Each structure stands twice: as C-alpha cells, then as structure tokens.
Amino acid sequence: MHSIAIEGNPAPYSCTDHDTVLRAGLRAGLGFPYECNVGSCGNCKFELLEGEVDNLWPESPGLSDKDRLKNRWLGCQSRAKTDLRIKLRTSEHYRAIHTPLITRAVLKRHTMLTHDISEFVFECETPIAFSSGQYALIQLPGVKGPRAYSMSNVGGKATGLEFQVRRIPEGLGSDVLFGLAVGDSVQIDGPYGMAYLREDAERDILLVGGGSGLAPMLSLARGALMSEKLQSQQIHFLYGARQLRDLCGEDLLKDAQHQANPTQGAQRVHYTSVLSNHPPGEELPAGCQTGFVHEVLEAKHADQLASFEIYFAGPPLMAQAMIKLLVARKVPMTQVHFDQFY
C-alpha cells in the first residue's frame, strides 16, 4: 500500500500494489480526470513530482514524447512503486457517482447477435452499482491490460452484467473474450464513464450508436424507459451499420419498450437504422436509410439538435463526425455525453 499526495490537496489517498494511480483515486472519491481508462485518450495525465511508478504500457498513444520529457504519466497506466507526490488538476465532474469495485465474474451466456457482435452475460460475485450508459473494465485471462466494454442492461445494483461486443479481426482481447466457455471467469472492475443517463434533464433524448456502440445506447434507452423522472420524454434512437448483416438492436429495443410499458413504450421510442455500405437496388428494411448515421441525423433533426439531451457511442470516425456536426449546430456541450474509448 502506498500513499499518493496531490499537490495542493490536504489529504493523500492510498493505492494498493495492484491498482493504478487513476482508479485508486476514483475509489477514494477524487475527481481524477479520465475518459478511456485504457491508455489511449491521455485525459488522465499527471506530473510526477516525487516517487517511482511502473508504466504498464510504455508505448501508450495517450502519452507523447513531449509528455515523457516533462515527467508526465498516465494515471490509468501507472502503478505506484513508492509513496508519490503528483501534480494534477482534479474536477468534481469526474468524481465517481458509484464507487468502482473489483470482483470476479463467471460467464453465464454467450449469444450471437450478428456475424461479429455477441452478447455476453456475466454473473459477478459482488453486486456492482452502475448508471445506464456506464462501462466496466474486464481483465481477460492471458491478456495484458483490461479491456473497456459498456454494459447494455439497465442501470442499478446488479450481479448480472450484460455486454455487447464486436469481434475485432486479429484483436487479442476480443479473440479471448469470444473464446471463453460458459463457466469461465474473468475480473471485472467498474463502473466507469461519464456518459451516464441524466435523469434530471427535461429535454427529449437522442441516442446515436454505431457498431458495438449499441450496448451503452441500449442501456440508456432501457434506463430512460424505466425512469420515473423521464416518462414524458421522447427517445430518438439512431443506429448505424455497414451492411444488412451488421444490423442489430431493434428487437432488443422493442423488448425494452414492452417491459417498461406494454401500452405506451412504443409511442415514446423512434428507431432509425442507417446503412453506410448498402448495395444499390437491394431492398431495405422498413424505416432503414442509407448513408452515414451523422448525415441522416442532420437531415432528420438539424434544427432541433440543441433541444435534445444527446448521447453517442461508436467508431472513432463516427464520433469525430458527430462532434463536428454538434459544434456546427451550436449544441451546448453540457447536453452532449460520450466516452472516448470506442
């Protein structure tokens, strides 16, 4: 156990030998800035003033050569070897709404949704409290470093966690995950993420997903349908895929509508699927459009975007296009929620 002191903060916090500087800080109730939690975004940088750390991923893209020269480290990739003194600007925005915890979990079910997206259901030894839209870190056997996956079930305190994951060609993490047998165990650490459901927002809800970004959007839709505070809000759900074989989620969304309110759920949810690589002349399913999901979004809701509470998740190019569109449409960023790790 090591003590970590943040310059300017009155009280240090403790970090075990097996935890990271970032996650130990979040467990201690600190507003430690972060986003991806796996070394890519760079939002959890800190300056090391005293002490020694182990760098879990020396080549992590979230850290530049300039950062290294200035003795900056990534909180999510640093383990304390000694007591530390660090320089970091904390923010209440990042204070955990549910304290992250680590638990073992057993795979209970693996269901194929498309040719490359599966749903994995794990049963945790210890219940995890989370909000709809958040994610967890899964440490897979034989894989160096955890992988971040969003829960797809509705938020609450649960031992059962559901994840919808796309298999990445030659992806070590997803290859191991897809190779797990029912009964195999993993370590789960969570929850994390800032793109959780804002139940106090009075605006209608816009959910935009692409690929395995379906999982957090489905969790948010389920959460909004079940929330007593959001019963008057309309839910607009756009899901982008490449081809027909990549489409999924509509049946799950319909099930969520029915479970929440068999008579009124369907009146509140408006689903649109979008295909970016659809062969000309091939028949489209009802309600399906072609193009990129951000383009269809702009065509449908261009003048109304600033009136929504907006959540999105998907591939990096989709996320970049979404941000560009929302900035151009002068949508206040306080109404926009996404986690940068997809």
Structure description:
The protein is α/β, with parallel strands linked by helices and 342 residues long. It folds into 3 domains: 2-94, Ubiquitin-like (UB roll) (Roll); 101-192, Elongation Factor Tu (Ef-tu), domain 3; 204-337, Nucleotide-binding domain of ferredoxin-NADP reductase (FNR) module (Rossmann fold, 3-Layer(aba) Sandwich), CATH 3.40.50. The protein is 20% helix and 33% strand. The protein has 8 helices and 19 strands. It has helices at residues 21-27, 65-69, 172-179, 214-226, 250-260, 265-268, 293-301, 316-328; strands at 2-6, 13-15, 45-50, 53-55, 72-74, 78-80, 84-87, 101-112, 117-130, 135-139, 147-150, 156-166, 185-192, 204-210, 235-241, 269-275, 288-290, 308-313, 336-337. A 6-stranded antiparallel β-sheet has the order 11-10-13-8-9-12. Strand 10 (135-139) and strand 11 (147-150) form a beta hairpin. Helix 4 runs parallel beside helix 5 (250-260). The two termini are 32 Å apart.
